[in-house]
Design a protein that fits this description.
This protein is an all-beta fold. It is built from no helices and 11 strands.
Amino acid sequence: QVQVQESGPGLVKPSQTLSLTCTVSGGSITASSDTYYYGWNWLRQPPGKGLEWMAVIADDGSTNYAPLLKSRISISRDTSKNQISLQLSSVTPEDTAVYYCAADPPPFGRYDDVGGYDYWGQGTQVTVSS
């Protein structure tokens, strides 16, 4: 059974870089077959707002980013640790949200609810405040 766990600093000061880690157990983040493969996504949900897709890294390592975040976001993976990481630079209070890691087959990141993904974590709260 695949389990997903996000982790992060909890509190970040404005202008700093946010670093998040998603640890996957029970399955490989690069698992694929002739009929399916997964992308691992980072999403977030600010207080009182809907789910926002941020980035994805596919099984072949290719990446894609939300246009509005592209200039300050980076997604990567460590296959030896079965982890996906996210870095978001120059954070502001508007980046305060619950951040989720979730996997789905293509087309990636199409769900409005994290429960629509094949695998997802419980999320980690990030607050940007001085």
